[in-house]
Amino acid sequence: MTQLLPPRTTGLTTLESPKQWSWAPPQPREGAPVDIGRLLGMLRRRWWLVALVTIAAGALAWNEARKEPIVYRATAVIQLVDARGELTGGLVNDEAHGATYYDRTALSEAEVITSRAVAAEVVDSEPLGTRVQAVGFPTRVLSGVTVPDSARPARVPVTFTASGVIVGAPTGTPIPYGMPITIGDVRATIGRPHIPLTSGEIVVLPRDVAADLLRAALDATPRKQTNIISISYTSDDPVLARRIVNRTVTAYQSANARLAQQQSRRRRQFIEEQLARNDAQLSEAERALSAFRGRQEAYSARDRFTVQQSGLLDVEMKRQDLVAERQLVSAVVRKMGSDDPTTRRDAFRMLASMQSFALNPVVSQLNGQLVSYETQRAELTSGPTGRTETNPEVLRLDTLIAQREQEVMRAASAQVALLDARIASLDELRARKVGAMESYPAAEAEETHLAQNAQALRDQATLLRNEYQQARIAEAAEVGEVEIVDLATGAHALPTTGPRIIAIALIFGFIGGALLVILIESLNHTVKARGEIESATHLPVLATIPRTDAMKPAKAKKVFARIATSPKQADQLQRQSVALATASQWRSPTAEAFRHLRTGVFHARNGGRPRQVVITSPGEGEGKTSVAANLGITLAVQRMRVLLVDCDLYKSRMATVFDLPDGPGLCEVILENVDPHDALYPTQVSGLYVMPAGTAPVTPEDTIGSAKMTALMNELAREFDVLILDCPPVLALPDSAILSAGADAVVLVVRAGRSKRAELGEAIRELSTVGAHLAGVVLNDPDGQVPKDGGYYYAHARG
Q: Over the stretch 735-771, which tens digit does the pLDDT of each residue have?
């Protein structure tokens, strides 16, 4: 056999004892920083999954946003003014209705606008769109809708046909468009729709439910530092929104005018009662004066009483004024103690408008606090979110209101006592004056007293008639405190939440996709980067083999022509497998990676070179045959005699890679005593020979571990510079462990994204058990997983 081999040109030196390696699973470090680069590598490797989840979330959000109906809002503007005072020429001017009043009550009036009473009035006047709603077709198709208060809830299907509309069952008789129809308790007219329609529903709601729905869509907002209130209504029908908001404004204006008119009527009735009582007293006084003058002839002595009577008359007039005022105050105090809340509220308002109390700072302050507490209570209890009567804050305000009412009543009683004291003082003054006139005829004194009493009653009657006239004018004025500034002329569409929802969905979709990728990667226990292998095995990664792309035929022919001895050999090389990456792409990154592998295995031990190199892997399909073939080519190019021995008797591929016969091979040499030189096949690369596996026996287990195998390897090692043994996977068969025990170096090939870390550790344990000299690991990356994980290809030799 030796005469068939080329002459040797290099010698071998003794190898140093290599370092023994062991498997040590990586331990997590507490507080270790997050590897941002690795996370980015995960996302880059599975970008399609992140994009898919993000697009799916955006699509779902877009589908939901597309279903969102367009909502329209119509807005009207009102202003709180003293229209009654302007209409009556200032005769009716309650000083409480000033700027302070509007600032204090604008919020309360806004709550009144959205109250159930106003909503019920709007529902009664505008049943279409409130109590009667169209589902599945425009509301404007309906007209002439009348709904009695006792109408029962109903949901009636409607079918549109070419000749008319069918109400109820679809098999009914069509009713021509434009004819009045009866739907339960409701009468309406259905016109021909302007757009093609097939079916829909007419829904009749109870009055209370319709009012609540209207209040939910209604909004009244006071403008800051003004007496202006904006009223808005939202609906999916712009015409309905404009009609409802305008009807709400007019209904509130009418209700406010009626309330003001009722207050004026109650004031007029009260003054009318006081005027009737005063007229009766005046008539009685005049009759007494006339009767006295008829009985006495005292007119000739009048001059004697002129001076004294003048002063006495002034005193009497003041006294009568005080008496009249006391009567008014007493009447108001009695009404303040009434059980009727309306009468009591009117009495407090009349008390605030009386001049004697307006000049009293204590009463004005108490009355102002009372109005403030009542306003706060109205704000708390009104509106859809108003608090109940048992709410602690409402109860506290009720207690404060009751206390202020008692204090006002005490202040009014004190005013009555003050008036009594003043009247008593005037009585004393009058008594002194009368005493001074005792020397005059008693008849003249009595006449004077009767005349003064009658005059006082006349003056009081004049004052009451003026008040009565003002009350009648105010009652006749059919206006309130609400002035319409702008009615809604149209409705504008509100911005939809669709774009915002889609943006949020895309963000959460991206986050969800990223989390899904991280979850998948955390469940993936395969090796994908050299750092993982080095930290887990404490073995050097000799090289990272990148993905090999097939060359174009023209380029391959030129490449093989440079290393072939003849055109025929070049044609044969062109047909070889992509596994021969070093020969087919000599300047490629793949060839460079195998040159790094050659350096790491053969030039990293102080000049010593291994004679037998075992190439194996933990499992199948990890690229060990390709690594062995390309490493052999790289060594042969360096003018070394290299023999590739296919020791994988179960799944041999070396003959296929180099396009060689399957036999005779290793099995025939050992089992059939075939001459070894008959099993050696030269390749197209000078200095590179291949011994295929041959035909495997039925039980090939005894072939690799036999003494003939050991003798054959020793003989071949003497004739070749390097023996590269392509062995089966470590975890599949014990052949690799047997051959590794006698080899100078063992190279373990793992495939990125496929080889599991646990299998790699188990393979290292198997090899360490037999004392194998592990040179390192080759990270094979035919699928391009390493760049996706943020790794790199070019490796350097490790010693």
A: 878 888 888 889 988 888 777 778 888 888 888 888 8
Instruction: Judge residue 380's burial from the number of C-beta atoms within 10 Å of its C-beta, 0-12 exposed, 13-18 middle, 19 or more buried.
Output: middle
Q: Using only the alpha carbons of the chain, give its radius of gyration.
A: 56
Taking Cα atoms as reference points, which of 328, 253, 791, 168 lies closest to residue 527?
Answer: 791
What residues pair up with 183 in beta bridges, in sequence order? 186
Q: Which of these, 441, 440, 451, lies nearest to 290 by C-alpha position?
A: 451
SS (H, E, C) 482-538: EEEEECCCCCEECCCCHHHHHHHHHHHHHHHHHHHHHHHHHHCCECCCHHHHHHHHC
What is the DSSP secondary structure assignment for residue 677, as one 8-state letter? Answer: G
Q: pLDDT tens digits for 92-122?
A: 444 444 445 555 567 778 888 888 888 888 8
User: pLDDT value at position 125?
Assistant: 85
| Residue 689 pLDDT greater than 90, yes or no | yes
DSSP string over 399-467: HHHHHHHHHHHHHHHHHHHHHHHHHHHHHHHHHHHHHHTTTS-HHHHHHHHHHHHHHHHHHHHHHHHHH
* Cα 595 to chain centroid, rounded: 58
Band of the pLDDT at 75, cuts 50, 70, 90? very high
Give residue 397's pLDDT.
Answer: 78
- CA of 663: how far to CAs of 384, 421, 652, 655, 699, in Å? 95, 143, 11, 9, 18
Amino acid at 215: R
Phi and psi at residue 590, in whole multiples of 5°? Answer: -65, -45
